[in-house]
Amino acid sequence: MSDSIADSATASLWQEPEPQPLDPRSAPVPRYGTGSLADLLPAVAAGQGVPGLPTLSSGLALAPADRVCVFLVDGLGWELLRAHPAEAPFLTSLLPGSLGGTGAPITAGFPSTTATSLASVGTGLPPGAHGLPGYTVVDPATGQLMNQLRWQPWTDPHAWQPYPTVFQLADAAGVHTCQVSAPTFAETPLTKIALSGGTFLGRLSGEERMDLAAEQLAAGDRSLVYTYYSEVDGKGHRFGVDSDEWRAQLRYVDGLVQRLAEQLPPRAALYVTADHGMIDVPFDPESRIDFDEDWELRAGVALLGGEGRARHVYAVPGAAGDVLAVWREVVGEQMWVASRDEAIEAGWFGRPDDAGAGGGVDERVYRRIGDVVAAASADVAIVASRTEPKESAMVGLHGSMTPVEQLVPLLEVRS
What we know:
The protein is of the alpha/beta class.
């Protein structure tokens, strides 16, 4: 063998292997049934003796309490909270007691986005069952993208999500049930199908909500109260989670939680949780891949749903396989890219062994999920500068299954 041939053979042995796309089965899926947002209210209501609760959420055990308040802080991810003890001293003091004293977080669901998470909280069901599996998804009846946060275009809420909420089940069982939130949410479709049951009481300021939540807790021998605050998420989207504005909101929320905790009536428990975390994605072409300017990603795509870090991709008829192959080739090293069936089988939308079309997904929900589903692993986003200008301009983003987005606290205070 000549020296040149030998050198070439030796070089080939040490050649860097070709990068491989991420395996969709390697994504850290939510802990549906054992430690997810969908399991929280069923565990609480079970301790209050409420019958008829969802059977898919039976693996989370919480100590019973006659009076329970769930305070959901939009955007308050576990990792973000742990990273800011100076801004949130009271919340930080509760971290060791998270998840029943284990000091561990729970998970949101996929995607880790507000509409999906609030539906999981309220119904006690994973996204594949309640049917809100993304920020925007296709309505199979019309072929149009449906924004499930703003409920545009209009569709019948109870046809879209037909299951009863845990609040409705608790109210029917004689539990004093109440939601305390911003007045603007009183009649929204999302509230009706996810958070209704008992009485809705609207209050503008955070302090008013805390005081009223405490009053409502004390109003019944058994009480279930839900309250909500949005601006941690709002400031994160606008300014980023590395901003003074975001930190100021965290300090404010820390005071709200302490205010409510100090007013708990006897035999009460307060749970503080969130719908998702958040990550700041840099404004550069490598980090923010613009679908509207990328001919490869657009090829064969009829509609782009979801959001920057959790995309539902709907192919033109007959092109789903090609779209999957191209998306894996272009972004597969930075995102988990799966076909609809692969994502379902991997447990992204519910436990594969649960009832439903394909496992964990109801038949009515199956076609709402993209032909291709892409979830970010790296600090990237698929934006759409022309068709989604507002969303594309956000600093802080969420939606995927990375720990900073997916892990949320379950902090507990008992009287």
